[in-house]
């Protein structure tokens, strides 16, 4: 691990990284636009220029070289000494910021990037409070470049991050620099809108307010948002994300750096797949069927109602006619609590992994980013829980075939899917079950025969862990409270299992670890690198 000197301070850094990366890793605030660790280095913005000691061509004595060097393009070398804190560097930064602001519109009050804009921050920290520009500013048009993205060309600083992203990461190459000289601007090729499955990342990559998300445009000020660390339920890869939210609900999803899964990027499915959280059709209170149909029930009474109905239907036997369907949308803690409760209540019950949604095939991009065809976050985790408890188990397809034959008198079905999952075949099979308990987000065809209907909370309203397709266990936190009238799934299962107090996923994992050692530790990605914002 080489040691270099930056502004008189010794810094230990990783071998072969750029000086800029070493400075950022050390917590230094070095201005830069074009550099991003996930993209190729072009050294075009020149904001990270530094002074460096070099040997005199005749005496070989080390001294400060008269020219400046781009820190993003200069690899670290043992013993090298550089400095950013000098009048020469500061003068360069002032001139550069003046050039960047010559034609930039003064629209910070209406710009969505205000509050997290590098141009805004750098203008204050490294620029000048006044402008010498007296000519009329050059204006570029606003462009609709794809189904999700707008381009405000007059804000662009031509860092070209977006162009490198679609060339190197997605391999789709929709974007380029058009025109020449002072008329340079970013654009998409004619007939090639920005519409690839990762395109939303260009908005995150843009250091200014040039590329904007249509769904977030003019909706919120970033300083009003709170941020929660989470894991996307979009597919089985387990992409880590930030949920930005406030009392009005979720407003956007951003990627959270994860060195083992998604690095700096997320798929559009993960980015835009949260709108079901705020759909009006969501179930919002428990209901129990009586002679008048499904009628509202109090949460406090629900455990007792469940026990009574189960006992009436199954009698005092071992519960061989009971099936528990655990959804791959559940967290590991929720699946463990519910399976444990059912196994204690009915040792001969059948545990079933619920419907696993598969859409198309896995898609791999040039630099290794993968979008999985399996559209659920915790299939492997639920399989681990079922295998641990053992006893009678069944696949989803076998369970449906057995239900049609009338094998089960009672079934507890956990859904929680973001899309419609109850087909005619599923509804027909479960209609054969005398006591059907459905725990789901939205109304479905199962409501026609369900004896008990329990509303579920979305992943953003819960906490727990998902085990991804590679066996990596990752925690997610609750971002927003459950919909009014809904109890978080973990809390309900916690109370159903006879536990008292407030449900906490970490506490349940400690209980699980006594039986399943792999849950003693979870994988938490390192913090997002400062330069990746």
Layout: helices, strands, pairs:
Layout: E1 3-6, E2 9-12, H1 19-25, E3 49-55, E4 62-64, E5 69-70, E6 81-83, H2 87-101, H3 118-126, E7 142-144, E8 149-152, H4 161-169, E9 175-178, E10 185-188, H5 201-205, E11 211-213, E12 226-231, E13 240-246, E14 249-255, H6 268-272, E15 287-290, E16 293-296, H7 302-314, E17 322-326, H8 332-345, E18 350-353, E19 363-364, E20 370-371, H9 379-389, E21 393-394, H10 396-404, E22 410-414, H11 424-430, E23 435-440, E24 452-455, E25 464-467, E26 473-476, H12 489-496, H13 505-513
Parallel strand pairs: 1-6, 17-18, 17-22, 18-21, 22-23, 23-24
Antiparallel strand pairs: 1-2, 3-4, 3-5, 3-6, 7-8, 8-11, 9-10, 12-13, 13-14, 15-16, 15-24, 19-20, 25-26
Helix pairs in contact: 2-3, 8-9, 8-12, 10-11
Instruction: State the share of residues found in helices, binned by percent.
Output: 10-25%
Instruction: Give the overall silhouette.
Output: elongated
**CATH hierarchy, class of the domain at 287-520:** Alpha Beta
Task: Please describe the biggest sheet, giving its number of strands, its sense, and whether it closes into a barrel.
Answer: 8 strands, mixed
Mean pLDDT: 92
**Order of neighbouring strands in the sheet with most strands:** 16-15-24-23-22-17-18-21
CATH architecture of the domain at 287-520: 3-Layer(aba) Sandwich
Q: What is the total tally of β strands?
A: 26
Radius of gyration: 28 Å
Strand content: 15-25%
Category from helices, strands and their pairing: alpha+beta
CATH topology of the domain at 287-520: Rossmann fold
Low-pLDDT parts are none
Distance between the termini: 26 Å
Helix segment count? 13
């Amino acid at each position: 691990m080489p040691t270099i000197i930056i502004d008189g301070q010794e810094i230990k850094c990783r071998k072969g990284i750029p000086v800029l990366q070493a400075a950022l890793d050390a917590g230094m605030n070095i201005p830069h636009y074009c550099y991003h660790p996930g993209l190729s280095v072009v050294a075009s913005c020149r904001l990270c220029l530094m002074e460096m000691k070099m040997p005199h061509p005749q005496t070989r004595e080390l001294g400060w070289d008269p020219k400046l060097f781009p820190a993003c393009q200069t690899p670290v070398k043992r013993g090298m000494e550089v400095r950013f804190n000098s009048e020469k560097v500061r003068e360069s930064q002032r001139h550069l910021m003046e050039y960047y602001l010559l034609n930039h519109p003064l629209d910070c009050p209406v710009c969505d990037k205000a509050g997290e804009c590098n141009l805004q921050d750098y203008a204050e920290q490294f620029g000048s409070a006044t402008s010498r520009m007296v000519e009329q500013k050059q204006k570029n048009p606003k462009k609709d470049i794809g189904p999700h993205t707008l381009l405000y060309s007059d804000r662009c600083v031509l860092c070209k991050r977006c162009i490198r992203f679609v060339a190197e990461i997605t391999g789709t190459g929709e974007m380029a620099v058009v025109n020449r000289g002072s008329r340079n601007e970013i654009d998409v090729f004619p007939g090639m809108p920005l519409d690839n499955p990762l395109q939303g990342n260009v908005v995150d990559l843009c250091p200014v307010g040039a590329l904007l998300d249509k769904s977030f445009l003019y909706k919120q000020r970033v300083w009003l948002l709170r941020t929660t660390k989470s894991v996307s339920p979009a597919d089985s890869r387990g992409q880590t994300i930030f949920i930005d939210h406030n009392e009005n609900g979720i407003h956007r999803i951003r990627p959270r750096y994860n060195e083992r899964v998604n690095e700096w990027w997320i798929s559009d499915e993960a980015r835009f797949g949260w709108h079901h959280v705020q759909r009006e059709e969501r179930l919002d209170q428990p209901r129990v069927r009586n002679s008048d149909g499904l009628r509202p029930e109090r949460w406090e009474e629900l455990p007792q109602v469940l026990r009574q109905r189960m006992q009436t239907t199954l009698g005092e036997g071992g519960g061989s006619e009971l099936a528990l369907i655990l959804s791959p949308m559940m967290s590991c803690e929720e699946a463990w609590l519910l399976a444990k409760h059912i196994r204690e209540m009915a040792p001969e019950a059948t545990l079933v992994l619920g419907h696993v949604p598969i859409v198309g095939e896995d898609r791999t991009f040039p630099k290794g980013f993968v979008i999985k065809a399996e559209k659920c976050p915790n299939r492997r985790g639920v399989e681990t829980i079922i295998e641990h408890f053992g006893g009678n188990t069944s696949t989803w397809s076998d369970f449906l075939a057995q239900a049609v034959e009338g094998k089960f008198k009672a079934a507890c079905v956990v859904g929680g899917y973001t899309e419609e999952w109850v087909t005619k075949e599923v509804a027909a099979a479960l209609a054969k079950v005398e006591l059907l308990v459905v725990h789901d987000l939205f109304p479905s065809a199962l409501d026609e025969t369900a004896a008990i209907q329990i509303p579920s909370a979305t992943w953003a309203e819960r906490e727990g862990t998902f085990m991804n397709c590679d066996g990596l266990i990752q925690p997610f936190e609750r971002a927003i409270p459950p919909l009014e009238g809904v109890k978080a799934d973990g809390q309900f299962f916690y109370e159903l299992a006879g536990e008292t107090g407030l449900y906490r996923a970490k506490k349940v994992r400690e209980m699980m670890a006594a039986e399943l050692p792999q849950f003693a530790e979870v994988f938490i990605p390192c913090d997002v690198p400062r330069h990746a914002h």
